[in-house]
Amino acid sequence: MFDRRLITHFDWTLLFAVLIIAGIGVLNLYSATASWDMATPYYLKQLSWMGAGLLVALAVCTVDYRHLEHLAFFFYGVAVALLLYVILFGKTSMGATRWINLGFFNLQPSEVMKIVMIITLGRYFSRKGAVRGLSLRDLGGPLLLLGLPALLIMKQPDLGTSLMLIFIAGTVVLFVGVRRATLVSLALMGLSAVAGGWFLLRDYQKERIRTFLDPERDPFGSGYHIIQSKIAVGSGGFFGKGFMKGTQSQLSFLPERHTDFAFSVFAEEWGFAGCLALLLLYLFLVIWGIYIARRASDHFGMALAIGVVAMFFWHIVVNLGMVIGLLPVVGVPLPLFSYGGTSLITTMIGTGLLLNVSMRRFMF
Known about the structure:
With 364 residues, the protein is mainly alpha-helical.
């Protein structure tokens, strides 16, 4: 029987924060693509995906998140199978094979894998926590669970999503607790992987890193995106140029302004003041997610909430770092802001999990 206390404890604060950010994102998308001649404008598509995502988030709330603990490895197997299917039969676009064509929708399994990895690690650590902190041996299982999908996603190739998966898993591991000696060992392993990984990168990925270090080396080629993005962000000044009055976006100097560089459009039109307001909204979303994790009634719920917060946090940090030139361009969208159906649905599933944990915090 449905417990009425679930409605009483519904987290309206979290839902309103998500809807406000998503609403600003739709307005920004309208401005960024207003000059494009399309049968169905991107902002209307984003609105439809937002509506679908909201329904998915509410549906996730209706199922007790504890049931996910028993299905975690089943979900993991299905997600890995989808990643394998992508490599063998997936849709190729712009040199990358990342999507499964479902007719009405292009599914990106690597996005789904983020949620699945959060659930799987939550299940693993809820049963295998260590009182004195995790040793390197304790991390053998999680590293295997992470390594397989990360390598499959790299194969597509999709460096950005693979890094996001690693960051999310790393945050969950740190939350569970790691011994100091283990942290040192992992740091040394990470440095070795970075040094050796250079030789595994594709030419365009190496070029992105070179461009990050020196955008001016090829201002009309590989450095064009980041140079135009920095111009857009800087030209916004304190109060911005006004809605739909940004020259970089409206005159089409800024590439990918509806996806990876959506924040650059916003910064040019609303300036420092607008960016500060948006960042405060994102900060509130992250802090509220941590608050939900602290109030969770069990270890699995805490791990789920921390994993979702990590997914939000790292997407925000990496995307903003990209658009202002602090990080290489790796194709990471800004949550609830960049255009993209699978990305938006994934974000809303994460929101549904946070709502789920928050609603059931009183149930033991």
